[in-house]
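[recover] target loaded
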């Protein structure tokens, strides 16, 4: 523990989940929740307004997801300390989150006390992974297992997430403040890197690799 209270921003699109985080964290004498946000855009604004010590970031949110929010926050403040707390227990999500600038990744199936410990570790700038993710990453390394998804940039990964969520080119362009032509270029590059020729193949590719648990926009 440190001599100061750790100021935390909680980002999740579910109000009940945010309230649960707040209750858990504020039981700790050295942690306080200074702000909440429900999506990537509000997360950035709350971060700039409150300058928290640690951001707890969900990944699957409507519109731009958590990975792009991490990238945007880190561009604004390279020292920002971000902990991902996600339902996705896959190497691809963890790799993309860390690549975007997160300092920790734990799953929502983890014990509640692990979140508290992870907040403290990330505040101390320690790279923190839950045992589930650590084991997956270690196994992949030992088996020299490389998934093409890991070759995507964080922005490409987020565009892919929205494509799989059946968002139109125009919707994706609006979410990322891009032109439809730029989104189309991302779309082509993603299919090229993953070695698929159609959006149906893209969906099956992601399903085979367990990356997306839902293709209807109902991810938690």
């Amino acid at each position: 523990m440190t001599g100061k209270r750790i100021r935390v921003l909680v980002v999740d699109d579910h109000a009940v989940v945010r309230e649960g985080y707040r209750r858990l964290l504020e039981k700790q004498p050295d942690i306080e929740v200074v702000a909440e946000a429900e999506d990537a855009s509000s997360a950035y604004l709350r971060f700039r307004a409150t300058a928290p010590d640690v951001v707890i970031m969900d990944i699957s949110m409507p519109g731009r997801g958590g990975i792009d929010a991490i990238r945007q926050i880190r561009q604004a403040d390279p020292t920002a300390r971000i902990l991902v707390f996600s339902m996705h227990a896959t190497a691809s999500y963890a790799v993309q989150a860390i690549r975007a600038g997160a300092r920790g990744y734990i799953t929502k199936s983890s014990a509640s006390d692990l979140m508290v410990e992870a907040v403290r570790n990330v505040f101390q700038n320690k790279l923190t992974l839950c045992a589930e993710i650590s084991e997956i990453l270690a196994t992949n390394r030992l088996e020299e297992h490389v998934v093409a998804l890991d070759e995507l940039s964080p922005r490409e990964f987020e565009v892919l997430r929205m494509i799989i969520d059946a968002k139109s080119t125009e919707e994706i362009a609006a979410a990322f403040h891009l032109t439809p032509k730029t989104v189309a270029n991302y779309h082509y590059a993603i299919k090229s890197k993953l070695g698929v020729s159609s959006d149906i193949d893209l969906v099956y590719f992601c399903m085979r690799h367990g990356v997306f648990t839902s293709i209807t926009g109902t991810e938690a």
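[recover] notes: The first helix runs from residue 15 to 25.
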